[in-house]
Amino acid sequence: MSAPIAEPNRETALRQLHRFIARAGTRYAKSRNFDFGPDRRANVSMLSPYLRHRLLLEEEVLRTALQRHSLGAASKFVQEVFWRSYYKGWLEQRPAVWADYRRSLAGMLNDLESCADVRKRYERAVAGNTGLDCFDAWANELQSTGYLHNHARMWFASIWVFTLELPWQLGADFFYRHLLDGDPASNTLSWRWVSGLHTPGKTYLATAANIAKFTDNRFHPEGLATHAPAPKMPDVYPLEHLPASQSLEASERFGLFITEEDCFPESILGTDAPAAIMGAVATRMRSPLPISDFAEKFANGAVSDALERSSRIFAVNGELTDSLDWGDTLLEWAKAHDLKTIATAHAPVGPVAELLAEAADKLAQHGIRLLQLRRPYDSLVWPHARRGFFKLKDQIPALIERLGNDPVPAAITKKAG
Ligand SMILES: Cc1cc2nc3c(=O)[nH]c(=O)nc-3n(C[C@H](O)[C@H](O)[C@H](O)COP(=O)(O)OP(=O)(O)OC[C@H]3O[C@@H](n4cnc5c(N)ncnc54)[C@H](O)[C@@H]3O)c2cc1C
């Protein structure tokens, strides 16, 4: 099995989008739940690694789908794209969920040292050595390709929690370390959803019949848990306000900082050209445990592609740092280029946001502003992600209307021309 995703760059992302989009209508609705195996993935888009690193934008995918299909015909595909935006917006407004996950994960990884029984079950699970053929195949597929079908992710998480009786946090970490699309919001909240923590009282139980049907009879597991008890008192997290979005002042001199959270930065800047450009990758911060080579390489490639593109468009040399001390690195870089402002795409809750927050404090002590520019799409959609997905789903026609029809953000067409 090899990685199914080709190159981590925008050109490949666009090619894949256009290759898939004819199938985003009723064909997708009928077949998307089938996991036919790693060599037969034409029923889903496989765009998630590109969307996750914003080599491709949700709004571009939605517009392209709706140029080809009616909203009725593409409704399932459109809703799936909005699930991503929903999870991003939801976590942004409940950052304590992420902080709690990170804290409890650290504790559980420590406890593995002393708790032989859990460690044994955990080691068998991640080695694909449980004796449950479907689960073992997915554990291997994840580690050798960096991708799993959505239904396989749901079955895997359900078996992890309810059959193997392992903590969801360890499973979320295993996914996050290996998925090319590994995302603090979609991953953490999906694991919480399976476990009955996102929609209180509602868990997800993987059944043998469902697995057999939707794997096209590749698997017929025996011995799966027959019930999935919901946690009695799930924690309640306060809803926080979204911070006001920041913007550059007209004709302001600034440096552009690119991270793996947004690899299409030239589309946020409009016609403003940066005086200097720097890129950085923080994939190593996904976990205290090692990150897969696939995931690191994909994020690295995505940032390098963004750096190369924006350097060309703005005719400014770009540099890539491998430092994780962004405070000192950005400070030196700002001094070298005489920058009082550094602009970066807004980083949603996760390791990049944490590194940026530390860097912003350091820079502020030296009179340098670190501006995080939020995309209008996020400002439009995230306020609808305060409760369950179905509140957001009701707003989809209105949100689509507000997005308009521009196929590509205007600034790019202007500059590239
Ligand atoms: C336990 C678990 C963990 C997950 N972890 C991640 C993760 O780390 N990163 C991630 O991007 N997705 C995650 N997902 C969601 C989903 O499985 C993937 O986005 C999807 O399988 C990607 O394949 P695709 O691009 O072919 O999807 P398609 O079916 O073609 O969907 C199109 C796009 O919609 C979005 N999308 C589709 N389904 C979902 C969903 N259920 N939730 C959120 N967005 C969705 C993705 O961006 C996807 O690229 C997880 C789901 C589960 C159950």
Helices and strands in order:
Elements: H1 10-20, H2 26-31, H3 48-52, H4 58-68, H5 75-92, H6 95-114, H7 116-126, H8 133-145, H9 150-163, H10 168-178, H11 184-194, H12 208-214, E1 255-258, E2 276-280, H13 293-314, E3 318-321, H14 326-336, E4 341-345, H15 351-364, E5 369-373, H16 376-381, H17 389-403, H18 410-416
Parallel strand pairs: 1-2, 1-4, 2-3, 4-5
Helix pairs in contact: 4-5, 5-11, 5-17, 10-11, 14-15
The structure holds flavin-adenine dinucleotide.
Q: What sequence of helices (H) and strands (E) makes up the elements?
A: HHHHHHHHHHHHEEHEHEHEHHH
Number of DSSP-assigned strands:
5
Summed up, the domain count is: 3
Tell me the structural class. Answer: mainly alpha
Uncertain residue segments: 407-417
Largest beta sheet: strand ordering: 3-2-1-4-5
Strand content: 5-15%
Give the CATH architecture of the largest domain. Answer: 3-Layer(aba) Sandwich
Summarize the main sheet: 5 strands, parallel
CATH level-four homologous superfamily name of the largest domain: HUPs
Global geometry: globular
Q: How much is the radius of gyration in Å?
A: 21 Å
Mean pLDDT: 94
So how many helices? 18
Report, as a whole number of angstroms, the end-to-end distance.
41 Å
Oligomerization status of the protein chains: single chain
Task: Supply database-style keywords.
single chain; 417 residues; mainly alpha; Serine Threonine Protein Phosphatase 5, Tetratricopeptide repeat; DNA Cyclobutane Dipyrimidine Photolyase, subunit A, domain 3; Rossmann fold; 3 domains; five-stranded parallel sheet; 5 strands; 6% strand; globular; binds flavin-adenine dinucleotide
